[in-house]
Structure formats: structure tokens, C-alpha cells
Design a protein that fits this description.
Elements lengths: L2 E4 L3 E5 L7 E2 L3 E6 L5 E5 L4 E6 L2 E6 L4 E8 L4 H9 L11 E6 L5 E5 L6 E6 L4 E2 L1 E2 L2 E2 L1 E3 L12 E6 L2 E7 L7 E5 L21 E8 L7 E10 L6 E10 L17 E7 L10 E9 L8 E11 L2 E10 H10 L34 H9 L2 E8 L3 E4 L3 E8 L6 E7 L3 E8 L2 E9 L9 E5 L2 E6 L2 E6 L9 H6 L5 E4 L4 E4 L29 E5 L4 E4 L10 E3 L5 E3 L5 E4 L6 E7 L2 E2 L2 E2 L4 E10 L17 H31 L33
Parallel strand pairs: 2-38, 3-31, 22-26, 37-45
Antiparallel strand pairs: 1-2, 4-34, 5-6, 6-7, 7-8, 9-10, 10-11, 11-12, 11-15, 13-14, 16-17, 17-18, 19-20, 20-21, 21-22, 23-24, 24-25, 25-27, 28-29, 29-30, 30-31, 32-33, 33-34, 35-36, 38-41, 39-42, 40-41, 42-45, 43-44
InterPro entries: Sema4F_C, Semap_dom, Semap_dom_sf, Semaphorin, WD40/YVTN_repeat-like_dom_sf
Protein name: Sema domain-containing protein
Keywords: Glycoprotein, Membrane, Signal, Transmembrane, Transmembrane helix
Length: 682
């Protein structure tokens, strides 16, 4: 039964079929932590290692319970005092774990900011302990692997147990480096100190892409100041080095001989708006076992006229590789030619084994002076969302095809699921993960669940399978992912091989009884009183924004296309919400009328009364609604004040970009909740 409740503070209309961001039933585990920054999954032992402030945790990824007592790796009092004397805040002078990666010998390489003096240690997974030199932890210099300031950007990736990192290289963060940090030890291959290579970079992500011929490559994604523009602007770059690059024999000794970079452009089709603030990049191999099918899903944010905007652009490995293989080099003198063999390549055309120590000097001198490509890699956004700031992205294959599901974390602690079939994008789910307003900074898919983290907690959320789509309408939008609505079971289920093939011209929402009529909703008549706050829902299944048509007056757009109205004589009348709609896999040319409300004023002497569509409600139900509404209002106010109080009292490290993925937030009412304070448990 559809019901409407009215309180003196908030008027909230709820229908049984509404789709909105709520606490998700699939959140079955939550771990509360402190300043979580990075984690590492070991599938062979089913262990999730979590790096936090001054500690390393080992968890069961299936339920987020402790596997071992935490390792404490704190700075000494003398180190803390020395850090403070350098002008740093005491809270920043802790040891924030920034890197967890497996090395060739099976040990885990652990690095931390260590009171603005980056250090690395070695962890033995068998005993879950840090290796020691006597009675002290065995430590090695972490410069270039972990930033001095825990808020500074960095990224890292391993290739066959060899570590590659990008980070600040000095205390003031005025020098930057991309380093082959291990194997052989004490002989790192690094970048030379030249603004042609890196100009005030902000490192975002890194990825290993294997090659069918064994010439694997490492990709780094970052933003930097581009000197080729006047005035100078910050642009997005992709850089590439060969995994087997050991530096040159004379020129570029112990320095990259294969470093190339190019600009990535994410711009609207009409070239009106560019997206230049790169937040995260996730590589996805669409055909498992075929590296050439790799695409990079890049997450951008920007502020347009004061409003937050997020966009996802997708770059194919094929396009990037083609530019590096055939594109023009910037700043080449007139009449000059590209030397042979072509600079920056990891293999020769004649199939001769590539060896950086035998690259001709003229090739090395050329790439030292011309690392930047003239052309750019351009694409248009796959997805643009206004009023939302996405902070993290992960992608998963569907049926080993070009179809994929994107999992995006927001700065408000939500997880959004979006299906991608070709260029068709559909919003599937918006799940509130956290109680506090805190950004999602880690998403890892594991056994049909998403391990979703923010700096204060880690949650395990069911995301795989059709059962996660709660309504017929949402299930219909997931038909491209192999889902269908079972009317008898009232559940979303996977299509069986025996299922009749659906007519491609058939509206997927027909099974919900809302096919042709879904754009002609009944007008809900609401009798309200002056001064009330009325929240009008508009259920949007598209990632594109909805548009409200309404009388003049005071209105506040809310998240998820809802509208809040402060009732007065000026804003009586018809309120209509129109959203983008999909039919036959394509967006309709005209937006769909999704919800319609008629607000009329009650006379002052009439008691609180609601008559949706002129249907009277029993008096007892109205009393219950008023009481429940008052309780809801108090609860909302309490949560709001707690969130606000928390934000003013805590300084999070959420703006850090870790080597892999970062961690999580608290959700109440679920099992397996383990509290951890700033002082890690012993």
C-alpha cells in the first residue's frame, strides 16, 4: 500500500516501488579502523592485509574478522620530536602506511611515511611479523617509494615481484621520481631530474600491462604543468616504461631509456567542457588473457560554475600504444628525423631481443630531449554526473565481453554501480556505505563482494549477481548483464540458457507493467501547510540528471534527483520531474515524465491531513505516521549534527592516492564489527 506521512518538520513521501540510496542489505561485514590507507589481497592464503596509522592488519576477506593480532610499527618519541621541530603537526608525524606489495621472494614490502622520513620494512606472511635486525625492525630507506607528507600523492605497482613507484623524492616535495625500486637492490633505474620528464606532477595510478611477446610495460597516470601551453595549465598524462629497462650503458646510466609520455584529453563531444582533474584510473582486460583488449577507465572531477561534476572517460590500450609507436615527437627541429630503432619501444621490428644497455647513443640522446608526443589521446566522456564527486573507480567484466560494471565511490561514502554495454550506460545501484560523511578511497572486488573502504572503516558489500537489484525496474535496466525479473518470485534472477530470447525491440520495462505507461505517472495530490518542508522523490535509473518543472518559490535540489520544497502560497501548484529514459538500449530523444505532484494549501483550521489522489487515510494511521515522522526528523537531525561534529574534529588523510586501493567506514547494525582506536590493538 502506498502511504504518506506528514510531520511539522519534514514531509516525506514514500512509495513501495521507490528506488533510492538506503542501507544495503548486502553489507554483511564492517570493520572500524583508523586512517586506513592501503591494502593487499593474497588470494593463495585468503588474507587481506590492511595498512593503517602505525599498524598493519591481517583479515579474513570473507567476513573481515581478525586473522592475526595487528602488527604495530610506530615511530619513536625521538623521531616524532624531530619531525615536530621541522615544523610539522604532531598528527602528521606518525607512520602512515602507504605501500604493501609482494616481492619476488614472497615477502611483503611495507613502506610508511615514518614521521616525514619514509622507511620501508619486510613482512613475513608466514609469521605475520616484520623482519628484525637484532631487536629492532629491519628498515631501508623509503625515499621515492613513499612520500614524506602522508597527504602527498604516490602510486606503486609490482611486475613479477619487482617494485615500480612514483612519488616525491625530497622533504619539500620539489623533486619527483619514477623508480624501478627493487631488483637489483641498490641499483634503481630512475628518472633524470628534468622538467621535460616531470613538471610538478600529481601521481594518480599505475598499472602493469603484460604483452603476448613478453615485452611487458608499466603505465603511470598523473597530472602535471604543461609547458607547451601559454599560459601554462595542468593536464593529464600517461607515461610508459619498459619492464626490462635497466638504463643505458653510457648515456642515461641507471635512468629510463624508454620513458615516453602523452596527454590524455577528456572532452565533451561539442568541445564545450574539458575534464582535467584526474582522480583515479583502473585498467580492465575485457577479454581475459588478451592484453590488447585492455581499456583504462579514468575518473575525472571538475567544478563548473560552482557545481561539482564527475566524468568517466575510457582510453584503449590500442590507441595509446599506436600513438607511442607512430606519433610525432614534440619539439623536433625542422628537417630532423626520428632515429632508428624508434625511441621508447620495448621491442625491435626484426624480432631481435631488446636490451636497454645496447640502445644506440643517438636514440638515447633523442628520447632524453623529446619524451613528449605531439598528438593527444582524445575521447568523450562515457558518463557525466552533476552534483556528485566520485573518488574511486573499479571495473569488472561481464561474460568476458565488452560489457562491464563500474563501481564508483563518492566523497559522501556511497557506492554506485553502473552497467556499461557498448556506449549504453545505466545506473543500477546507489548504496550508502558509511554513517559519516567520508570519501570512499578503496574498492576491491572479491568473490562477488566489494571490499569498500574509507579512512575510518572497511565494509564488505554483496555486488555480484542479479539478486542485488531490488526492484523490477532496476532489474530491467540490468538486462544487458544477463538479468531478468521473475514475477512469481518477485526477484531479479540470472537468465537461463533455456530462457526465451527477448525481442530486441521489446521494452525491458514491459515485464514490470510500466512499459509504455511509465512516462505517464498519476499526479499525486498533496495537501500541505505553510512552513513545512516537503521532500518530493523522483526515482532516476539513469546516471544523467533529471529536471524539475515547478512554480516559483523556495526549492532545494537534493541528491538522487529529489526536491525539497518550503511550502508557501508562492509555490503551490504542479511539480513535474523528467528524467532521461532508455528504450531498446538507447536514450529516448525526449526525457520521461517520471513523477508528478500537485501541492495545495490546507486551511489553517484543518488538522494535519494527507489525501494522495483524494484517498482518505484512517485517523489511526495518520497518528502513527506523525509519531514516526517526528522520530525520523529527530534521528536525521542527530545524524546530521554528529556528521558535522565529526568533520570539525577530525582531519582525515582521504586525499592520499595509494599504491593500490584504500580503506573504509563504519556501518551500524551488522555482525563482525571490530573497533580499532588510534592506538592499534596488540
Amino acid at each position: 500500500m502506498k502511504s504518506t506521512c506528514l510531520t511539522g518538520v519534514i514531509f516525506w513521501l514514500t512509495t513501495c516501488s521507490t528506488y533510492q540510496t538506503t542501507k544495503h542489505e548486502g553489507i554483511n561485514s564492517t570493520l572500524v579502523v583508523s586512517n586506513a590507507s592501503v591494502f593487499l589481497l593474497d588470494p593463495s592464503s585468503e588474507t587481506l592485509y590492511l595498512g593503517a596509522r602505525g599498524s598493519i592488519l591481517a583479515l579474513h576477506p570473507s567476513n573481515l574478522t581478525w586473522k592475526y593480532p595487528p602488527i604495530q610499527w610506530e615511530v619513536t618519541e625521538n623521531d616524532t620530536e624531530a619531525c615536530i621541530q621541522k615544523g610539522q603537526k604532531k598528527d602528521d608525524c606518525a607512520n602512515y602506511i602507504c605501500l604493501l606489495e609482494f616481492l619476488k621472494n614472497g615477502t611483503v614490502y611495507v613502506c610508511g611515511s615514518y614521521a616525514f622520513d619514509p622507511q620501508c620494512a619486510f613482512m613475513d606472511p608466514a609469521t605475520f611479523s616484520l623482519m628484525k635486525d637484532g631487536d629492532k625492525v629491519k628498515m631501508v630507506q623509503g625515499k621515492g617509494k613513499c612520500p614524506y607528507n602522508p597527504r602527498q600523492s604516490h602510486t606503486a605497482v609490482t611486475a613479477d615481484g619487482v617494485l615500480y613507484t612514483a612519488a616525491c623524492y625530497n622533504f619539500m616535495c620539489t623533486e619527483f621520481d619514477i623508480i624501478r625500486a627493487t631488483d637489483p637492490p641498490n641499483q634503481p633505474v630512475r628518472i633524470f631530474k628534468s622538467m621535460k620528464l616531470l613538471n610538478d606532477p600529481w601521481f594518480v595510478s599505475s598499472a602493469l600491462v603484460k604483452d603476448s611477446h613478453g615485452e611487458d610495460k608499466i603505465y603511470f597516470f598523473f597530472t602535471e604543468i604543461a609547458e607547451e601551453y601559454n599560459p601554462e595549465v595542468r593536464v593529464t598524462r600517461v607515461a610508459r616504461v619498459c619492464k626490462r629497462d635497466m638504463g643505458g650503458s653510457k648515456i642515461l646510466q641507471n635512468e629510463w631509456t624508454s620513458f615516453l609520455k602523452a596527454q590524455l584529453v577528456c572532452k565533451d563531444q561539442n568541445n564545450v567542457r574539458s575534464y582535467t582533474i584526474l582522480s583515479h584510473v583502473y585498467p580492465l582486460e575485457h577479454r581475459v588473457g588478451d592484453p590488447s583488449s585492455t581499456h583504462f577507465y579514468a575518473l575525472f572531477t571538475s567544478h563548473s560554475e560552482g557545481e561539482r561534476v564527475s566524468a568517466v572517460c575510457v582510453y584503449s590500450l590500442a590507441d595509446i600504444s599506436k600513438l607511442f609507436a607512430t606519433g610525432d615527437f614534440r619539439e623536433m627541429p625542422t628537417g630532423s628525423s626520428v632515429p632508428s630503432p624508434r625511441p621508447g619501444q620495448c621491442e625491435y621490428d626484426n624480432q631481435t631481443a631488446w636490451d636497454s644497455l645496447h640502445v644506440p647513443d643517438k636514440v638515447l640522446q633523442f628520447i632524453k630531449e623529446h619524451p613528449l608526443m605531439s598528438q593527444t589521446v582524445d575521447t568523450v566522456p562515457l558518463l557525466v554526473r552533476w552534483g556528485i564527486t566520485y573518488t574511486r573507480i573499479t571495473a569488472a567484466n561481464m561474460s568476458n565481453s565488452d560489457a562491464a560494471v563500474l563501481y564508483l565511490g563518492t566523497d559522501q561514502g556511497e557506492l554506485h554501480s553502473i552497467s556499461v554495454v557498448g556506449r549504453n550506460v545505466t545506473l543500477l545501484n546507489e548504496i550508502a556505505i558509511t554513517n559519516l560523511v567520508e570519501p570512499i578511497n578503496n574498492i576491491l572486488i572479491h568473490q562477488g563482494h566489494a571490499l569498500v573502504g574509507s579512512p575510518s572503516a572497511l565494509s564488505r558489500v554483496l555486488v555480484d549477481g542479479c539478486a542485488v537489484y531490488p526492484t523490477c525496474e532496476v532489474c530491467a535496466q540490468a538486462q544487458g548483464l544477463g538479468c531478468k525479473w521473475d514475477a512469481k518470485e518477485r526477484a531479479c534472477v540470472a537468465k537461463s540458457t533455456q530462457s526465451p530470447v527477448q525481442n530486441k525491440s521489446e521494452d525491458p520495462l514491459k515485464a514490470c507493467g510500466t512499459g509504455e505507461g511509465r512516462c505517464s505517472p498519476l499526479v499525486k495530490e498533496l495537501h500541505v501547510r505553510a512552513g513545512l518542508l516537503v521532500v518530493l522523490p523522483c526515482i532516476n535509473l539513469s546516471p544523467l540528471p533529471c529536471v524539475w518543472e515547478h512554480p516559483q518559490g523556495r526549492h532545494t535540489p537534493l541528491l538522487h534527483s529529489f526536491l525539497m520544497v518550503t511550502v508557501s502560497r508562492d509555490n503551490e501548484g504542479l511539480y513535474s520531474c523528467r528524467c532521461p529514459a532508455q528504450r531498446n538500449g538507447f536514450l529516448d530523444s525526449e526525457p520521461c515524465l517520471t513523477a508528478s505532484y500537485l501541492l495545495t494549501m490546507e486551511e489553517p483550521n484543518i488538522n494535519y491531513r494527507v489525501q494522495p489522489m483524494m484517498e482518505t487515510q484512517p485517523a489511526g494511521l495518520l497518528v502513527v505516521c506523525v509519531l514516526l515522522g517526528a522520530l525520523l526528523g529527530a534521528l536525521v537531525a542527530t545524524v546530521f549534527l554528529k556528521r558535522r561534529s565529526w568533520r570539525t574534529q577530525h582531519t582525515t588523510l582521504a586525499d592520499r592516492n595509494g599504491s593500490g586501493t584504500n580503506q573504509g567506514q563504519r556501518e551500524r547494525g551488522f555482525e563482525n564489527e571490530l573497533v580499532m582506536t588510534d592506538a592499534p590493538l596488540g
